[in-house]
What we know:
alpha/beta
Amino acid sequence: MGNPMAWNLFNAGHELTIHDLHREAGHNLENAGAQWGNDPKAVAARSDIVFTSLPGPREVESVVLGNDGVFAGLCDGQGYIDLSTNSPTAMRRYSEIGGEQGLRVLDAPVSGGVFGARDATLTIFVGGRSEDFKYFHSLLRCIGENVVYMGPAGAGSVTKLVNNTMLFVNLMAACESLAMGAKAGLRPKALYEVISTGMGQSKALDTLCGSP
């Protein structure tokens, strides 16, 4: 997810400094002109805004608050935006710590998958101060089609957890229902096609059976 989002920022004309545990993951960006930072602090020291897109809360905390972390490299007035699926409590904490340093902090988890990241059609759920949302709105539009302010710090992360809960419940229901139809002798493809025109249609069903 991080690579295509970074690519869209680069294509929009923004200078990039990037970091990943596996440097080869960013070779396409480096080859295009992005700079490499040896750690998150080095990235932050060269940047006005730092984005993170990480597996989960533990990784975000290490990258943000570590000795060589993002907050160690940012200065007053600069920004930090987390695109990860993260803990709302953690994001409120980072917002408070960042605020004490004069930083603009947003939680901005995304929905839309790799294809949405590639095509810059993501939905972005944003939490933080409304003035910071307005300040970064045009930047977030470089990676997302629907950029929505949800409320104070942590609100974006809460929204993403609600979204994921609905997705997984719907996906499980779609799997079980299609399996029931198949066991009853129906062709899964025909079942999907006809349900897609009825009230049983959902994005979860399309994700499971449809073409990207």
